[in-house]
Structure formats: structure tokens, C-alpha cells
């Protein structure tokens, strides 16, 4: 019998002492984590929930590494994150574009690079199925894309004629000026980390990832759940959904506005058997 472990992270704020006074206040992320954990439990996962003040890099990576030590070929990890997304410049080379960016998950004490999450997933034994569900902004991969994403015109298209503070509250994206400020403060740390991550190699993890939006879009918060998580739960409908992972993504996407279109992608070579399963199957 396969084993399923799940880790659910919901951050309604971050530590302002770590982000130069910015607390990243959101409304629905902790609810998202609790609700996704309930889905996991109902489907036979052993779940762990990490909420705002405990959502540190050390706590989250410790849980991931503990899971990597337990799960074997044929088992499954479910990883969900609700909170802010951000990005940091990559000045370490290795890419033709001088404006390369690394996407981040904005944990309570610092930004966590996408390559760090990838490295944690690589630590799992081959054959472990990995499903990641991310309800956060996935910023663009170039400065031009991010400037377009956060322009007044783009914000008005997605959020109406709201004041910038209201847009910030409605979107799960770390403000551009704060991203730049924090990176300039911590650039030596991030550049060292990026160089270390580039040295890593090994087989790509066999993972299915469903993100709340495309690279050039913002992910919306909500009063109860994030917009993406809200629609995911409606499609899931307490387990009455029937279909595979691609069907699940498609049905969520159909419920979303065109300005926030969930993304489906894979890393490594997930088996067709995995992709054909009903979501959240242990």
C-alpha cells in the first residue's frame, strides 16, 4: 500500500523585521492551507500544516527532508503553498539574458528560490510521485515582463480602479520596490546561494505542478480562500470530481477569469500512470 505525506503552508503575513518593515498582509492563505490539508486527509495522506509564524525556511525544509527520508518508490508527496510570490535577479551568469530572474516563494523569514524547492524535490527517491499546488503569483522571467505585470494599466485590468494599497492586498505578489530593496540588502547571500545551486545536478524530480496563474499574471487573494484555491475546491467538490490531473487543471481553468489562468506543467518524466490518476490519489 503506497504512503502519502502532505505538507501545507499558508502565510497570511511575513516577519516585518526580515523584510524591512513590510508585513505582506494577506487574508485567505491560512484557510487555503487548512482546506487543502482536509482534502489530503480525506484521501489518505498524513498531513502537516505550517501557518504564518512557523513558515520559516528551516521549518519547511526540515519537513520536506523528513518526508524525503520516509517516502519510497510508488509513494506520493503533496506540497501546497499559499502566500506571496516574488523574484530575485540572477547575476551569477549561466544564462544568455542579463536580466534573468529566479522566482521565489515568500516564506516568513526570507524568499525561497524556485531552485531551492527543486533541489528539495530532487532529494526524493526515484519513483516518488510529487504533486505541488502553488497559490501565489508567479512573476515573469524578465524585467520587462514584471514591469508590464505591475504597470498601472495591468493592475487596473485585473483589479479595477483600486488604489495601489488595495491592489497589494488583493494580489499575492511581493511589491516590486520591496523586491528590489530586499535584494540589494541581501544580494551577497542570494548570489552565493544561486552559485551553489548551479553546481547541483542529478535527475529531475518526477513532479506535477499546478500554479495559480501564468508568468505574466497576478494571483488574487480572497475573503475566505484565494481565487485559485476557491475554484480548485469547487471543482474537487468533496471528492466527486472524476478525471485525471490534466482534466482537473482544465476544469479549474474554465472557472477562472482570463486574467488569471492556472498553469499546468511537469518536471522530469512523471509516468503516464501517475498523470492518469484521479488527483490526490495515494
UniProtKB/TrEMBL annotation:
InterPro entries: Caspase-like_dom_sf, Metacaspase, Pept_C14_caspase
Domain of life of the organism encoding this protein: Bacteria
Domain Peptidase C14 caspase as annotated: residue spans: 17-266
SUPFAM superfamilies according to UniProt: Caspase-like (SSF52129)
Protein name per its UniProtKB record: Caspase family protein
Species in which this protein is naturally found: Streptomyces bambusae
